[in-house]
Amino acid sequence: MDRGPSQMVDEAVREFLIESCEALDLLDRELLALEKAPSSKNTLSSLFRAIHTIKGTAGCLGLSAIESLSHAGENLLVRARDGELLLTPPRIDGLLAMSDALRALLSSLEAGRDDGGVDQGATIERLTALAQEKIEPQGPQPVVANSPGAANEVQPAPANLEGQALAAEGSSLRVDVGLLDRLMNLIGELVLSRNQILQVRARLDDPGLNATSQRLNSITSQLQAIVMKTRMQPIGNVWSKLPRAVRDTAASLGKQAQLVLQGAETELDKTLLEAIKDPLTHLVRNAVDHGIEAPEVRAARGKPREGRIELKAWHEGGQVNLVLSDDGAGIEPGKLKAKAVAKGFLAADKAAKLSDREALALIFLPGFSTADKVSAVSGRGVGMDVVRTNVERIGGTVDVQSTPGAGTVFKIKIPLTLAIVPALIVGCGGERYAVPQLSLLEIVRLDRAQAERSVERIHDAQLFRLRGRLLPIVDLREVLGLAAAKERANLHVIVLQADGQKLGLLVDSIEDTVEIVVKPLGRHLKGVPLFAGATILGDGRTALIVDVRALAQSARLVDERHAAGAREPAPAEVESDRRAFLLCRASDQGRMAIPLGQVARLEEIAAGSIELVGGREVVQHRGDILPLVRISQALPERRTGERSVHAAQRKPEENLQVIVHDADGASVGLVVDSIDDILEASPHARRAATRHGVDYVAVIGDRITEVLDVGALCLAASQQALRELP
Amino acid sequence: MTTAANARQFCTFLLEGLLFGVPASRVQEVLRSQEITPVPRAPRSVRGLINLRGEIVTAIDLRRRLGLPERTSQRPPFNVVLREEGAQVSLLVDEIGDVLDVDESAFERAPQTLQGPFRELVLGAYKLDARLLLVLDTDRATAPEHL
Fold first, then answer.
1. What is the chain A residue with the closest CA to B143?
2. pLDDT (tens digit per residue) in A358-403
3. Fewest C-beta atoms under 10 Å: which of A255, A283, A528, A544?
4. What is the torsional sign of CA A92, A94, A97, A101?
5. Given an 8 Å threshold on Cβ–Cβ distance, is B144 in contact with A519?
6. Nearest-CA distance from A496 to chain B in Å?
């Protein structure tokens, strides 16, 4: 590349920019001075020289737009200097407008565009008109001058611009994103340094240092907030091209589709915005191509001829949710499986075992395409895996749900920003870990007596009773594979929300809340899913950042939830629909569940301690009398199914698993054979119950499950007891 | 691999009495012992993370990587921080040696009889006057281990 001459030109242009800016500043000042003394020869000469220099240099550099504009101004000034016309206020306005227009041209030039980036024809015409008028101090004003439109277009520049505001176009300016990235990194380092100073301050307790560090603290926080804000952009910015993409795609396929956008004002970090642009475009096109059916097909199926694609965005818990839904044909899991087998992705026996959800996930495999025909738009199998890769690269997730015949929903979750997050520092096994506060709901501290009362154990799972609701507990030591803690005097439970479900995290100690800068882990630790990164704490030591989502997954909770989740269109519905269930079994009754909200606590009772009172089984427990209901007896027999061993006929030394239910202040113990698990699920595909005592039948954790109607069961049990009274 | 073998200047260090070398061009700096934050569930050879002037650096215990016995000395290990693309890596070693200029002709490829991690991680040796300088394959030594 021939860099020599082009560098020289660059140098000349830069000099021209600086000189012209200074000249325009001078021009503005002198013009304002002329308003008071319109015929000062000195001022007029200096004005003329300034504009003449700009014109000359622009001509040399081949900047024709600047040249012609300054030429028009020069013509006016020449006549004024030679006394042919007076610089009336309209003429001064015109020259100020020229000055602004020149600034706009210069900043356009500085931004790397040529000098023709701003239209200046109107200003030239105006100047030419002004130059041709006779000396008429009160003459008619040109049409454009001082009209509201012109005033908006041409803002009088502040008297002193000092060159630095060269690029200013109105009140906003363009900044290189790379610059913002660096700024953000530096702010991150500043936040860490601030944290360290705050720790030193706590140790030294020096009044002078206290005041200074407080100031530093407040400035850092403000700076951080502002820099974060500079990076935020409404998601509508990347949406603007989507309606067109839908229209064009639909037209090329002979389909009709309409895109409805909601939540365009939702803001997120610029980098993230850029990262989701392509995946979104692909998904939207895909929805038209694979989702929406041809108009005749839709009409035949009783749908409107025009397909509807909805894209919604909203903030939730420090994340941005994006949901793209269409009312098209949906995806047949069976078809996907067949395709996967035909393409050699899967063996037939394996494919048969896939759940519908797993089958749907096949579309994210590289090279997988579902369209029967390859179209110009999609169907080449290059897209969906890229969509997922792009979304996951920025720490997001993408999920697909589909109802054959009714449509498909893609749900994308992405973080708001990646750089600085508030976190809770907890101690565990002698080390400190950072838990992002985004997922933190509350912190509970329990002394030993409280812990004994409110922490229950089912097999290897622990449950914590929080205000009458049971919460699964995960011991951080266990998850991290550390030695189990010796008897802990106090329990610290952090209640977290992970992907729509709650769980309690048991830690050794709660240390502090600080803002942390997320730093990525090296490639050696990519295989360790439990951590979202690392950070540097105030004392200079590194701490790992716990990935709450991975934590929940390692506790086998989120996975099940996903398996159960079917259709999650709106956040409100997701919230209300999602419930936790206690899975239990009673002799051969099949899979049963009780809504966790109806479970007060779990007990293990020695069968020998059961007494009969008034025909009913009861036990004495914690100074109370607890009536028992054996679920296998309380439930009417199913038409098929034979009742085998009666729970009552069990050996007396065996322990009974009892689920305690509080009803209007009185407790009832439901006796089951085993308590298996706790799952969060949105019980979709509800079917009416086929027998009394069952509220409804639903798919929970991928399997058909009877959800018990605890109230009805208790009632039935008391009635039965009354009947059996001698 | 060939680039490592052709390099003439080596930064040397000791492990279990053996003299190892990595191309000096790959070494960013050598540090005395640093505070290490362990990473639970990480591969065994990853000792943890260190804070290197605000950057998080993964510390790899070269003894463990090479299948040598655990360090018994009371002296804390040294860090040989390597230049890496992206995240930096530090190798934990017993002692730091000199930077040596070696004669290309003194190089011999690792004998086929080497077993285990040595076979995988040692490119060959330079026959110095008094001892052997084992050339570490830095790419492999710092490659992520399978969990």
1. A524
2. 788 888 877 776 554 444 444 444 578 778 777 776 767 788 888 8
3. A528
4. negative
5. no
6. 21
- The token pair that represents A416 in the structure block: 């708001």
HEC letters along A550-581: HHHHHCCCHHHHHHHCCCCCCHHHHHHHCEEE
Residue A540 to residue B40, Cβ atoms within 8 A: no
Q: Alpha-carbon distance B52 to B91, whole Å? A: 13
Q: According to the model, what pLDDT value does residue A334 have?
A: 87
Q: Is the overall model pTM greater than 0.90, yes or no?
A: no
> Token pair for residue A233?
């952009």
Say yes or no to pLDDT of B42 above 50: yes
Q: Which pLDDT does position A726 carry in this prediction?
A: 52
Note every long-range contact of B104-109, with CB atoms under 8 Å and residues 24 or more positions apart, other chains counting.
B104/B6, B104/B8, B107/B5, B107/B135
Nearest to B65 by CA among B122, B124, B27: B122
Selected for mutation to probe chain A from B45, B53, B56, B58 (highest A CB count within 10 Å) is: B56
DSSP state of A364: G
Residue A30 and residue A44: Cα distance in Å, rounded? 8
Rg (CA), chain A: 37
pLDDT for residue A479: 86
Please check whether residue B62 touches A, CB under 8 A: no
CA proximity to A721, closest of A625, A615, A630: A615
Token code pair at residue A680: 């969060």
Q: Do B37 and A192 touch (CB under 8 A)?
A: no
Residue with tokens 């060939």: B2
Token code pair at residue A40: 């000062």
A484 sits in the region (left: phi over 0; alpha: psi -120 to 50; else beta) called beta
pLDDT at residue A683 in the model: 63
The answer to whether A699 and A603 have CB atoms below 8 angstroms apart is no
- The answer for residues whose C-beta is within 8 angstroms of residue B41's C-beta and 6 or more apart is A480, A481, A528, A530
Tell whether the torsion through CA atoms of B94, B98, B99 and B101 is positive or negative.
negative
pLDDT of A140 higher than 50: no
Q: What is the pLDDT of residue A164?
A: 42
Tokens of A514: 């600080």
Size of interface A-B (CB pairs under 8 A): 75
A527–B89: do the CB atoms touch at under 8 Å?
Answer: no
Which residues does chain A have within 8 Å of residue B54's beta carbon, measured at their own beta carbons?
189, 192, 536
Residues of B in contact with A544 (CB under 8 A): 37, 39, 49
List of chain B residues whose C-beta atoms are within 8 Å of the C-beta of residue A536: 51, 54, 56
User: Which residues in chain B are contacts of A521 at CB distance < 8 A?
Assistant: 39, 49, 56, 58, 87
Q: For residue B61, list chain A residues with Cβ-Cβ distance below 8 A.
A: none
**CA end-to-end span of chain A:** 107
